[in-house]
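Problem 12. The chain below contains 264 residues. Write out its predicted structure in token notation.
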Amino acid sequence: MSSKKEINYFNKYMPADLKTPNWNYDKSIHWYHSYFGHHQVGQICGELSPSYVMNVNAVEDIYNYNPDIKLIVVLREPIERLFSLYRYRKQIGNWQYRTFDHAVEHCPQFLSLSLYYEQLKIYFVRFSREQIKVLLFDDLKRNKNQFLLEVYDFLKIKPFFPEMMVQRSNVTVDVRSQKLNHLIGQMRLYIHRNNLHFILPPLRRLGVVPIAEYVRDKLNVSQRGKKAPELNKDLRNRLVPYFLKDIESLEKLIDRDLSDWKCM
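Solution.
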């Protein structure tokens, strides 16, 4: 895999704000390839950037980069995905919505992030079905080894099972001060929105960026033993009809039974 997670090279807009231009988008292909410098010639390599399915421009840019590329998509139950995304964005300070209900009510674009059929159908038009592998997050939770075997079979590579498969990653936590993380997140967005990217390297060298990230990710984190919040069942039941048509279309597109996603 690339030396950095979520390079976000092919998305024209920022993952956290689809109205803010992505400053990596216009960088050279040599910059993109620099994240694969540790790979050997002929070795299969890839990267992970979920934002590509949310940016409609990405499908053409990826095709123009490599029309024979293979694409792997992992989908989580749409409402659970939104709840997890809300908690993550709140943690890193990109959102100021007090509750998940508040985000759903005041940010219509938020719900559209889990309209998977609308996002994926253009990929199935541009690429052949043999180039796209769609898996479910439930598959991963149910049997990690089988999940990996499907990936390896799709890529035509020899199976191996790294020890890291038993470890949890990207665990969302609660924060002590939402206002503090929001301030840090908004400062970063301000830099992107105003094309001030040139100040980031000196800020990193001076230690400003690392300190801000340490405060956000370490010092401002509440006790980890606290039970994670659960999605309100009544709210979930109210949201199911919004996604129902998209889920039914997705079932046909990927030929998978998604009945569990439609339960109220």
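Discussion. The chain has a mean pLDDT of 88. Students who got a different answer should revisit the alignment rule from Section 12.3.
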